[in-house]
Structure to design on (168 residues):
């Protein structure tokens, strides 16, 4: 089969571009620790308030059995609960989030806290906040008329200022 030499060149160029893009994505994913969701845990979204983990009294921040600081949250139209949260800087924080109704997302800019919150599943993300300050956790999946107002406050404080008082 004859392939024109110009056409051959373009075949090489298009392959080069494809592999270059795969390379950039891979380097970016490794460098910024971006991973596909791998935590498949199911839950009945209509009965969150009856579960041990996601009932109202258990939401918030606590130290998990493995010693990691864990934040338990419920996403529901139109808010994340609890709505104000204080976490220590430079410390791995594990977020466990469940939706009480429809599909939501949670996103904090410049961090890898960015996941869909799919009803029926528990979303889990571990992240470390490198800077202190006040941040927002936004919903980034359109979930209804109040979607634009669905967000909560995250206060990242110096380690010395952070206290785990009781279970929250
Ligand atoms: Cu919740 Cu958009």
């Amino acid at each position: 089969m004859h392939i024109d030499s110009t056409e051959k060149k373009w075949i090489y160029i298009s392959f080069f571009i494809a592999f270059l893009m795969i390379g950039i994505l891979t380097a970016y994913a490794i460098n910024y620790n971006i991973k596909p969701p791998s935590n498949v845990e199911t839950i009945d979204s209509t009965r969150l308030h009856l579960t041990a983990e996601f009932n109202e009294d258990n939401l918030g921040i606590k130290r998990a059995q493995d010693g990691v600081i864990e934040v338990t949250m419920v996403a529901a139209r139109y808010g994340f609960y609890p709505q104000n949260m204080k976490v220590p800087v430079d410390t791995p924080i594990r977020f466990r989030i469940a939706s009480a109704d429809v599909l939501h997302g949670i996103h904090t800019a410049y961090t890898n806290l960015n996941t869909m919150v799919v009803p029926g599943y528990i979303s889990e993300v571990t992240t470390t906040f490198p800077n202190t300050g006040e941040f927002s956790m936004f919903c980034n999946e359109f979930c209804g008329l109040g979607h634009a107002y669905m967000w909560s406050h995250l206060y990242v404080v110096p380690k010395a200022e952070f206290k785990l008082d009781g279970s929250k």
About this structure: Helices lie at 5-31.
